[in-house]
Amino acid sequence: MAATSRAKKKARGKKSSSKGRKKTVARKKAPGKKKAAGKAQKKGAYSAKDISVLKGLEPVRMRPAMYIGGVDKNGLHHLVWEIVDNAIDEVINGHATTVEVTLDKDSSGIEVSDNGRGIPVDKHPETKRPALETILTTLHAGGKFDSGNYIHSGGLHGVGSSVVNALSKEMVARVKRDGKEYEQRYRRGKPKGDMKLVRKVKGRGTTIYFKPDIEIFRSTKFDTKRIRETLEARAYLHRGLKIIYRDRAKGVTDTFQFDDGIKAYLEKLVKERGFKPTHDFMFYLESEEEPRMEVALQWTDEPGEYIRSYVNGVYTRDGGTHEQGLRTGVVRAVRNYIDIHDLKPRGVSLTPDDLREGLSAVLSVYHLEPQFQGQTKEKLNNPEINSHVASAVGANLELYFNSNPTTAKAVVARAILASKARRASRDAVLQVKRKTAVSHRLNLPGKLADCESTRPAKSELFIVEGDSAGGSAKQARERKTQAILPLRGKVLNTEQATLAKVMENKELSDMLSALGCGMGASFNISQLRYHKIIILTDADSDGHHIMTLLLTFFYRYLPELIKEGFVYLGMPPLYRIDHRGKKYWAWSDEEKEEVIDQFDGKVSEDAVTRFKGLGEMSPHQLKETAMLPESRTLQRVFIDDPLETERVVSDLMGKDASARYKFVMEKAEEADDVDH
């Protein structure tokens, strides 16, 4: 799980407010914007003069989120995937065998090379500029609009490389073709000069080096672990592909090449997630019929399902029609086998969720003209893919079941067990719901200080640590829109608890009652009473622990609230610094030192107050720093990488103490100070 800032922080002094919080300044460069806006405001006029026309790559710098999804870590790494996917497209279409990725020592620049055909360097007939320059400086320019050049490609928009160039402080493109090497340099999307012939060389291919622009992104440091894992996944998807990753920041080199492809990938994912297969087999299907597809699947003792899908080598985080087809095909095959062999017990109703319970799968589809939802390519929209995948998977999986009855019966038994567990869970949840009667305000938890508003979109619930903090928060809140729910003591670790214990827990039961949306089979997001659920705990280690326990509960039992963007973390300050009649706030030891450094260290020890907890803050201080929308800092909780999130939650919050010990030992060197 990760979090992203959703509100501006209160001014903390010039130094403390500037470091690490640079904002996008490219927006100020839109031609004529300031002048036109001024005239409109002065005269109230609206004419053709007030219309801004953005040229070249200006739209990208003006609105980067439209092209890469945002300027956070996800958007930053999306630049890498765009260039890497271009290189892999050469592999998919049989023109290359090797992709090399090199990360700079400071983790802020990256180079991607392939041994493919090399981007054309001759003059484009329309632009009269080299094709290399045209591709890197013009939106919707590329060789993927015509299927004659690329049979399968990760994207057909023709914007990937040019967008990366537009959002980079600098870019260097080198091309090897016909025994010669060419080079051209760019700065913020514009050529620094003409393309040059560098030397005569052997071989062929394209090399792109770029450094993201700090004017655009909050941080330009790449996550080496994230890049490594993504490249490894790409290598699994393309049998025979060799990917070399050089991490100069850590001084290591990894080579990824897998002959067993997605079968080996699924085996790795199941092992990493710590679940045991229900059966020994792994179903595998490869179809060369267009659209091409490859799928590996098996059932495990994991609750729910886990599907990792790709289109033309691109990870589709939000699924799409190909995943829908896989689910339909699996359900069809299992249900047909049950019906033909009369295996369903009396009194048991098997839902599609039951039949897919424990399913783990890797699905890879290759389509000539993929239709993605947005430029970030996180969801496939081609409707014909649904029936194609469903038919292929359904027919072949049913055939396999009939040829392997022992395996088939193990899958059916898994579905029946899931049905019974689901019914027990539903009954437990309904029992709690009857007790709490969440639909009536009179039956809300007694310690809940509810807000006056009945509009969920305007209502906020602060979950605070302890009665002392709850008292301050109740005095500091805006009664119309802000509700307060204090919790007593440590919250139950739901990762290690049974469902029965979760339902019996008083703190969690009260929280569910306050939220109103139910849980499990009775979950109904339309009944959610607050569209901002803010976890507000002390800024010390105990507070972070409680925050983690609550996040574990939301992740395991109410993941929909995270996915819909309803869960936030409140960020109260750790220090207050008083100097010459002014107050400065600091959220960490580093920020405190930055504030003090502004005054050349001329701040007395008595002027620095460290808050041990929210209860030590006055209602006014709490309101100003943590509750007032204009000055507070909130971080929205979201699931960045589902696999990594699952692994972290399982390792750190699960029953296996050895996994936590390993994590602590690995991170021990990074912990300079521990807050007791």
Oligomeric state of the chains in view: single chain
Q: CATH topology of the largest domain, which one?
A: Rossmann fold
Poorly predicted tracts of residues: 5-41, 143-158, 434-442, 672-676
CATH class group of the largest domain:
Alpha Beta
> What percent of residues adopt helix (DSSP H or I)?
25-40%
Judging from the principal axes of the Cα atoms, what is the shape?
A: globular
Q: How many DSSP helices?
A: 22
Tally the structural domains: 4
Task: Using the CA coordinates, give the radius of gyration.
Answer: 28 Å
Structural class: alpha+beta
Mean pLDDT: 81
The count of β-strands is: 23
- Residue share in β-strands: 15-25%
Distance between the termini: 25 Å
Keywords:
676 residues, Ribosomal Protein S5, domain 2, 4 domains, Heat Shock Protein 90, alpha+beta, Rossmann fold, 9-stranded mixed β-sheet, disordered C terminus
